[in-house]
Amino acid sequence: MRTLEVNDLRTYFKTREGEVRAVDGVSFALDEGKTLGIVGESGCGKSVTVLSIMGLVLPPGRVVSGSAHFQGRDLLTLKGRQLEDVRGRDIGMIFQDPMTSLNPTLTIGTQITEALRRHLGMTREQARKRAIELLQEARIPNAAKRLDDYPHRYSGGMRQRVMIAIAISCNPKLLIADEPTTALDVTVQAGVLDLLHELRDLHGMSMIIITHDMGVVAETADDIVVMYAGQIVEQATAYDLFDRPEHPYTEALLAALPQIEGEGIRHGRLVSIPGRPPDLIAPPPACRFAPRCRYAGEDDCAVVPPQLREIRPGHWVRSAHPACERAAETVGAR
Amino acid sequence: MTESLGQSALQTPVPEGEALLVVKNLKKYFPVKRGVLINRTVDHVKAVDDVSFEIRPGETLGLVGESGSGKTTTGYCVLQLLKPTSGSIRFLGQEVTTMKRKELRRMRREMQVVFQDPYASLNPRMTIGDIVSEPLVIHDIGDRRSRRRGTERLLEVVGFNPDFINRYPHEFSGGQRQRIGIARALALNPTLIICDEPVSALDISIQAQILNLLKDLQKEFGLAYLFIAHDLAVVRTMSDRIAVMNRGRIVEEGLAEEVYTNPKDPYSQALLAAVPLPDPRKMRTRREERRKHRDALAEPL
Known about the structure:
Strand order of the largest sheet of chain B: 6-7-8-3-9-10
Radius of gyration of chain B: 20 Å
Mean pLDDT of chain A: 90
Helix content of chain A: 25-40%
Number of helices of chain B: 11
Distance between the termini of chain B: 52 Å
Order of helices and strands of chain A: EEEHEEHEHHHHEHEHEEHHEEH
Oligomer: heterodimer
Order of helices and strands of chain B: HEEEHEEHEHHHEHEHEEHHH
Strand content of chain A: 15-25%
Structural class of chain A: alpha/beta
Low-confidence stretches of chain B: 1-9
Shape of chain A: globular
Low-confidence stretches of chain A: none
Structural class of chain B: alpha/beta
């Protein structure tokens, strides 16, 4: 069963210098009970992709085209109240910064019960009881007492746990987490990621996790989408992507990661990617990675835009030079 | 300065048998104050609590820990940007903590710093050339022309186009700005550079460029680094030895490889188990490993 199917999503931002094509033709599907990881560097369009799906893109941004089917409806055509009914009830969301996404003037209890009363029509007492259960599920010690505390009494990790409790409060089918652990210390991050994983299984949710961290995506996702300059450049199962990365960008990104285990780390050099991501007002005409790609050369990959193609079952890549074909070429040349 | 760029880094030799930097029993307590009229100190935050370590010439010591562990405060004490509560810091054989202004100034030629945020640490109203050559002006080294030549050379050394010498910081990306910060730190030809989270604001592909640059410069100029960072993999790739900090103390110190493959302290074990590895096959075993360490970490409430 499909939970979410996104097709040819395009979101542009109007600026004085021109139109920024932040998301430019993104399509993916998410199956029930699975976690999809969207990974990429800053400005690649990963956050704008989910903000578009949730109807949270504000002017000067605009969803130019595309569809996002969720439970038989296209989210991109929903308006006002319909959209509000979906957000927070059928789709829960967690943002990066737990310090700013909670209202500092309201108690934690008020903020959790708000969603329960709005979406599920609970009474004050019912909602309070459920809120305590939710905080317990998010493993916040002493839940009943902490319900009446204000956000400033919570540490960063505990605030993110509150955000998770709010996000799952209405039993959503889909949980979207946008850099949920980026602001947290690594030991706290591990706890939050483990919690998300357990809750997904417990509630039978699907999940989208957006991150810049290859480690986080490896530990959480079943399927992975790699984005670069507003487009998906590679898509595969987590195992296949890390075992056999095909796109030169994915390969380079993995090679650029400092390693924690192994030999010769100290005196070795990291593989770096020259240059930096392109300007999305006037992106390179064909392959957007071509100017930084070590394999771009005499062929026409900088002239003819490469399409996303399936090079083996379930593994999609947008490049004229996927690793498997490069290997074949060198063998053929011999 | 231009002439000295290529020379051996040491201008003042380290006394026989002593490391370049020797920190002993360093403490930095911040008072917690209460009261409006009668301002009394009710408690202390022990940001750095009895920390000792050494750095030899040309060596990198990695200082790793989570936020609030005291790693940056330690670096600031070494730089004398903060006055330590007690303890000794010897640099190039001289006690730094009791130095007078003039001596400190001389000392700072040998000890420079690269900060975390390249967006905040460069003055937006100064040109790239002014930023990089400012240390030379302050220490009154060379004349205008030789300073300009030196600046161009420094920019080249860090892989920055010297033609951009008259531009302003806002015209450049995070990675390029960090290169400018590094060029500035190199201007006085120091022996020790304190790198405080130099790549944590950068994307992975850019991060690799800067880390490689720091490695190359170390080799070329025989620099020693105190490399402060929260990212364990980044610290691993840069360091000969590593010290793990937690709550103001160094809980474990040793050769990088030993600390990472066979951590002795429960906190270092938990910290290493928490790092997400870019390898989905290890996910399940690591999740179980983490469960074992849960007790070593009291998550802040």
